[in-house]
TrEMBL record:
Residues 1-92 form the HTH araC/xylS-type domain. This is Helix-turn-helix domain-containing protein. Keywords: DNA-binding, Transcription, Transcription regulation. Gene3D superfamilies: Homeodomain-like. The lineage of its organism: Bacteria, Bacillati, Actinomycetota, Actinomycetes, Micromonosporales. It holds the Pfam family HTH_18.
Length: 99
């Protein structure tokens, strides 16, 4: 979770777990019901949601901090996953101090 902003592949995760990429993918799907890349994307979207709710950071900064890298990529994944743009999400769920 601390490395969501870094490029990560299944092979990177497998090396960290000291197993093959294929073994990790099978075990991961068995345990979570999803693939490692889809899980990673979901975590990055959740991180972007947190940043949209709690910061005034622009989309470029949020994309860099959450992992998609660019605002364009963040918009595409965010809309595909949630059905709204990051801007719409922020307007709806932004938490102001004291709320």
């Amino acid at each position: 979770m601390r490395r969501l902003d870094e490029p990560l592949t299944v092979e990177d995760l497998a090396r960290r777990a000291n197993v093959s990429g294929r073994h990790l993918a099978r075990r991961f799907r068995s345990a979570t019901g999803t693939t490692p890349p889809q899980w990673l994307l979901n975590q990055r979207i959740r991180r972007a949601q947190e940043l949209l709710e709690h910061t005034d950071d622009g989309l470029d900064a949020i994309a860099a901090a959450s992992g998609p890298g660019t605002a364009t990529t963040l918009r595409r994944h965010f809309d595909r996953a949630l059905g709204v743009t990051p801007g719409e999400y922020r307007r709806t769920f932004r938490r102001r101090p004291g709320q």
